[in-house]
Design brief:
heterodimer, A: 95 residues, alpha+beta, Histone, subunit A, flat, B: 477 residues, Arc Repressor Mutant, subunit A, 3 domains, 3-stranded antiparallel sheet, 17 strands
Chain lengths: 95, 477
């Protein structure tokens, strides 16, 4: 798999990033290096190895359905770049 | 050209757990914006989710009640997309190993039975709410709903008509309510349906291009959206154009759907396994335990009511269709031991009062025992049927105790036949003209006399007794 200009534009769009030409070139080189490394990993025979998504064999970590107090609203909104009436304020969106 | 319609449904149902799926914030509906939130459900960096066990339990329950196979080793995945209602920029969901698979729900439309296959049921988190602020030309985000547990129930494309869709949703809703996993309040968004729809000319075996209509939140709106979209697609094809695969939004006020902007349409979610949550392993014992705890489901209940009580199928369909009517039926029957009578009261007075007062079944407040008691009182001829209906209205609206209410308002029937006789005699004496007509052969007059007597008795007499005494007295003339 090769990451070309078209793919970089597409990934940029998905990530909501406006990239300058220079940044696109950089990203392209870096992502291609990562993909190359994946190709190296792909040469290893894993046919008898079960796929895993976690490094540790831990399963069934659960929490009981008990309500705990929520955070103070002012604290939660502390990092919001914009707020109004107790809500996060964002550019207009269409649902 | 004649067309066939094919539909599939994705139903989102909010689970009625007390807390969110990955944190201990309350799931309570309403509340001031952003008061049921914490680091986890607002996606603060460094916070870690922890799965609510009850969500898994409810998912297993739902899977078993819809004839699914439970995936004993399953896990979560991230669905990536940018939208301000989702602070992490991904939704935790299940793509590769959903918790339930390959089930079915049996429906019946116009006497024809059909199984609708369920492809899968998966667990996921709900998103926040965006409120558009017209004064500021911005959107305000409330994350109270963000992280509320959802089940997404995905059907196969097995629907051929709007009636089948409605029958399926009605059945699904009643199952979810029976097994106590969701209140399914469509007006509060705890049950929402997305409809995938395609049309194709009769004779063509290959399915047409489908569109998806999102988040329609009433049964009536769903029926209208289906009809509207079917017509639109047929028009597109008849005009020689092609249906475009896209997500459309149904505007129920305008009665038409419109395509969502193509950017929102870009469906590349780049799913990958969620590294912050560990896999779930569901043992045979766990499944067995949940299975044993399941209540009797609508279909089984319906069959039992017909076999055990000999009730008409139509009535049983209505009653078993709602766990709230079932509760009234079973409690009242327990008190009075008259299932047929209880069923008649539900089909008559309960439904009438619910419709007259615009009360949803789940919001009916009266104690079901009162209906049972009222039926016993009626059976013992303490009051007559008309009075019983009046008392029931009070039971329905004010949840009064029928026995006490009848006593306090002196509604008991006059059981003293001597008293009834005296009134009958007085009425006959006071109406010589009517009596003359009776003698002249007019039978109608008897009804008039009975009416006058009941009026004097303020309706508190057994109509049979009054009827008999009036007949006797008139004979004597």
């Amino acid at each position: 798999m090769i990451i070309d200009d078209k793919m970089i534009d597409y990934i940029g769009e998905l990530a909501r990033l406006k990239l300058k030409q220079e940044e696109k070139e950089n990203a392209k080189n870096e992502i291609n290096k990562i993909i190359d490394y994946m190709d190296v990993l792909n040469t290893i025979d894993t046919s008898n190895i079960e796929a895993m998504s976690h490094a540790f064999p831990v399963k069934n970590v659960f929490r009981k359905d008990d309500v705990m107090p929520s955070k103070d609203r002012d604290d939660i909104l502390l990092n919001a770049p914009n707020k109004k009436d107790g809500a996060f304020k964002v550019p207009k969106t269409f649902e | 050209m004649e067309f066939l319609t094919t539909m599939g449904l994705e139903v989102h149902c909010e689970l009625s757990t007390k807390t969110k799926i990955f944190c201990s914030c309350s799931t309570e509906f309403g509340g001031e914006p952003n008061t049921h939130v914490c680091e986890v459900c607002t996606g603060m960096p460094g916070s870690l989710p922890m799965l609510n066990e009850q969500v898994v339990e409810y998912a297993i329950r739902t899977g078993l009640a819809t004839n699914c196979t439970i995936t004993q080793y399953n896990k979560f995945d991230r669905k990536n997309y940018f939208y301000p209602d989702l602070p992490k920029a991904y939704q935790v969901s299940q793509l590769y190993m959903p918790i339930c698979q390959n089930g079915h729900i049996d429906i019946e439309v116009n006497g024809v039975k059909k199984a609708i296959r369920i492809k899968e049921i998966h667990m996921e988190e709900d998103a926040g709410k965006l409120i558009h602020d017209p004064w500021d030309d911005c959107s305000l985000v409330d994350y109270n709903r963000c992280g509320v547990p959802l089940l997404e129930i995905v059907s196969e494309p097995d629907f051929e008509s709007g009636d089948e869709v409605i029958a399926y949703l009605t059945k699904l809703k009643s199952i979810l309510q029976y097994i106590d996993v969701s209140d399914c309040k469509m007006e509060q968004g705890s049950l929402r349906a997305d409809v995938n729809l395609s049309v194709r000319p009769v004779g063509q075996t290959e399915l047409g291009t489908r569109t998806e209509m999102k988040n329609i939140n009433s049964f009536k709106a769903i029926a209208r959206a289906i009809e509207g979209e079917r017509k639109r697609q047929i028009e597109v094809i008849t005009d020689g154009k092609k249906v475009v695969q896209e997500t459309r939004r149904w505007d129920d006020n305008k009665g038409s759907s419109f395509a969502m902007r193509s950017k929102e349409n870009a469906q590349d979610y780049r799913y990958f396994p969620e590294p912050d949550l560990v896999p779930i392993e569901i043992s045979d014992e766990w499944i067995e335990k949940v299975k044993n705890g399941l209540p009797e489901l609508p279909t089984a209940k319906k069959e039992r009511y017909i076999a055990e009580y000999g009730l008409p199928e139509y009535d049983v369909d209505i009653i078993t269709g709602s766990k709230y009517l079932v509760k009234i039926f079973e409690k009242a029957t327990e008190i009075c031991g008259e299932p047929k009578e209880v069923s008649n009261w539900i089909m008559g007075e309960v439904l009438r009062m619910a419709s007259e007062t615009s009360t949803e079944f789940e919001d009916i407040k009266f104690n079901p025992d009162s209906l049972g008691k009222l039926i016993v009182i009626l059976k013992n001829k303490v009051i007559n049927r008309n009075t019983a209906k009046e008392v029931f209205e009070k039971v329905f609206t004010d949840d009064i105790d029928p026995e006490k209410y009848i006593k306090e308002n002196g509604l008991e029937m006059v059981t003293d036949n001597g008293a009834v006789e005296a009134i009958v005699k007085a009425v006959i004496e006071a109406n010589p003209k009517a009596v003359a007509e009776f003698k002249g052969g007019s039978a109608k007059v008897k009804g008039f006399i009975i009416g006058q007597c009941m009026k004097q008795l303020k309706g508190k007499a057994d109509p049979g007794t009054v009827n008999k005494i009036v007949a006797e007295e008139l004979e004597k003339l």
